[in-house]
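Progress note, project year one: complex with magnesium ion.
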Amino acid sequence: MSLFEIKNLKKSFDDKEVLKDISLKVEKGEVICIIGPSGSGKSTLLRCSTNLETYDGGEIIFDGTLGLVFQNFNLFPHHTVMKNITHAPIKVQKRNKDEVYKEARALLKKFSLEDKEDSYPCNLSGGEKQRVSIARALAMNPDILFFDEPTSALDPELTVEVLRVIRKLAEEKMTMIIVTHEMNFARNVGDYIIFMDDGYIIEEGSPDEVFNSNNHRMDEFLGKLGE
Amino acid sequence: MMLESMLIQLCKGMLTSIEIFVFTLLLSLPLGLVIAWGRMSNIKPIRLLMKVYISIMRGTPLMLQLIVVFFAPYYIFGISTSSQFRIIAVIMAFSINYAAYFAEIYRGGIESIPKGQYEAAQILGYSKFETFFIIILPQVIKIVLPSITNEIITLVKDTSLSFVLAIPEMFTVAKQIAAAQASITALLVAGVFYYIFNMIVALLMEAIEEELDYYD
Ligand SMILES: Nc1ncnc2c1ncn2[C@@H]1O[C@H](COP(=O)(O)OP(=O)(O)OP(=O)(O)O)[C@@H](O)[C@H]1O
Ligand SMILES: [Mg+2]
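Model obtained:
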């Protein structure tokens, strides 16, 4: 059985059908990158997967903890970096405080944030904020981690440091579903690529298969990105 | 009347003013939050009811509200009230009036918190209750504090309206003394009192604002 599975998912906003018939399977340790033009339904798919949005048809089969990394971080501005990371594991998951702190410090070290423990989000760069938000998601020990364009709000030089962190997680076999506009990243890090357009999955497969396909919508999309 | 006895009477009045002030805040600050919730409720009748309530409280004179609250038990329910009821009526009237203003301030603050804060909290597994009190409210308090300070300063001065119910607070006492002496000395002393009271309130609120200034 797959770790996470979506079967024939359908979602409309008012009378606008945004997800038309989406099915997808995620195996443990797999990194799936979702690409596609603006408005194709990528965020909606993630929001339905993470229960931020209800859906109208189909089903999502998953039993476990999930995390979501947002484009604009959504860190809690009144909590320090440390509290942002540790509060939910301690208060929601009721885990041992010392253990959670130890894990959080290890995460901060891994993401080169060890000196930011007591900082507030407002004093961090965008790249640092995103790394903290990834650490916050990981501290919950999720079985699967979703990313919605984690670098779209960042300058190119900050994008690199965040992508490096995600790449590191991929090497450690973290299960991830990543919506991204970074085509090189998707090609290099993704085990499986999904190309969405207009609420459908148009192409899917290994990076080589998808990026070398002759699908004209795929070509059009990559052409627009200047590939 | 001797200066000394005048000051003693004014001091007693001052304590009554402070009593009205403190109890009004203790009641209206939390009540305002409850009204703000009602005003933002998903249930339409509750939302409408709170909207009407707020508009009445803000659209009619506070002095009239004081009188209505005081006489309502008698005229509506035929209950005769004791003289102790005066001070209770005053605190009740002030509380329900100020709660309406606080509710609108809270609502503005709550609505200014980005949706992403709720979504991040939901993903992390916080309950609705935890999300509000741990994530949202602390941010709201910081945002609304300057507006709350304005209302509190107005309240200090508004306590003098209690004279319509002949509550022996600062202003009522000062007015009586002034009339008896045919001199405005007592009123001037009362003016100094309100001014100092408000200075202390302003300093206190400033200190709280600074305390919350650890992030922006
Ligand atoms: N809450 C909503 N209410 C109404 N329509 C919505 C809502 N959220 C999304 N939509 C619509 O659904 C469609 C898909 O949006 P979605 O955000 O999923 O696209 P996307 O693929 O993530 O695009 P982008 O690359 O720009 O982020 C769009 O047409 C959008 O306008
Ligand atoms: Mg999107």
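The mean pLDDT of chain A is 94.
The longest helix of chain A spans residues 156-171.
No further modelling is planned for this target in the current period.
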